[in-house]
Amino acid sequence: MTNSRIAAIDVGNDSLKGIFGKMDAEVNIPNVIARDIEDRPIIGIEELDTQDPLDGIHIRVHSPALKDNNAIYRVGNLATKSNNSTELDPGSSKSEEDQTLVMLFASIALDAARNDLFKKNNNVIEANYTLGTGLPLREVKEGKDVGYRSRLLGSVHQVEFLVTPRYQGIKVNIKFDEVKVYPEGFAAFINLVMDNNSNIINKDLIDKRILIQDIGGLSTDIAVIKDRKVDDDKAQGFNLGVSESLELIREEIRSRHGIELDSRRDVVEIITKKNDRNHIMVKGSRTSVHDIVDRIMLELAKKQYRHLRNMWQKNSQTEICYFIGGGSSVLKEYIKTLNNNLDGYNIDFFEDEKESIWMMANAYYKLIGDFTRKNEKQQQAQKDEQKLAKTK
Q: Exposure of 175 by Cβ count < 10 A (0-12 exposed, 13-18 middle, 19+ buried)?
């Protein structure tokens, strides 16, 4: 594990959240990519070094893990400005999409380029990482985590920065010393009960029977926790996320008001912003899109509530359900209203939006940190044994 840096990465449908090292760096990149055929033209190239690299991620990715190898991509903020940008489609599997890997490699390469931890020869950085990441429960139950992990391990994945501020011309060779792929529901439970040093922080919660409903962009996972672990047989994953509804809102705003929003993230911002919520600017006038948002979001909230009700009926001794994930932040008020008017289950949301959105990345950080510490202890014990054997 020598000179291996920790990376805890949640490739969420809306954005990638990554935590690195000893929590000394984090990154949040919109999960949008756009294929490029050639180097993008730059206006005012001398200004490139003054810009934020996150606003201009332009890379070539070479990896045997990709179906489409050696392709050039615009990533994140830069991709949202392209006509051919792609976001993950409903029904797709996170573990099987090139987009997931392109985002993952881009975030790690950015981290490697912005610190001096690794060896650098002629603008080539040799970077070693220990990765903690996750997949939706449904994909783990189907065994897709095994293939995903093996595609990452045992190969070198190269990211070459093309016209990217500050890092143009740098190549990063990424090698994983270890990859742990966790089911998302289990990770959420760990985050609720454990701190960064594996100490129990929530004794009240640890022996309770809990549901965790994680609403993502493409899917919803409901984890069933009892006896301090996830009941794999009862946990369920559904192909129902917020992406399709966000897309419908985007379409309706386009057809009704002639306003083109760059990505689903723009829709999320309109729905969740503190001031002028559910309003857009049309020809300079503040215009409400409340009716569009309410109608589409309420429909989705009803479907999510139906899943909650079915799961609670099957697990009648449940004490509380926690709603987490980016989708929960968007649907919170609608689900609360439905619950107040209908069954009145004991449900809870994280009022701190950042905490909810970063929950998975934090959980992977705790889990991979715990694994690393145990591994280092084991290695030290083996060394001590060998020393002792030599002295005898």
A: middle
In a domain, 102, yes or no: yes
Residue 350, both tokens: 């994280």
CATH of the domain at 88: 3.30.420.40
> What integer pLDDT is reported at residue 46 of this predicted model?
44
Between CA 172 and CA 192 the distance in angstroms is 35
Q: Which pLDDT score, from 0 to 100, does residue 72 have?
A: 95
CA 107 – CA 255 distance, rounded (Å): 35
User: In this structure, are 18 and 84 located in the same domain?
Assistant: yes
Q: Pick from 79, 42, 24, 36: which is nearest to 57 by CA?
A: 79
Both 61 and 9 in one domain: the answer is: yes
Q: Report the amino acid identity of residue 254.
A: R
Residue 195 lies in a domain: no
The two three-digit tokens of residue 386, written as one number: 């060998």
Q: Indicate if 268 and 325 belong to the same structural domain.
A: no
Which structure tokens are listed for 71? 């392709």
**pLDDT reported for residue 86:** 87
pLDDT digits (tens, 9 = 90+) for 268-289: 889 888 788 889 899 899 999 9
pLDDT digit string (tens) for 121-146? 999 999 999 999 999 888 888 899 99
Parts of the chain with a pLDDT under 50: 1, 43-46
Are residues 205 and 249 located together in one domain of the fold?
no
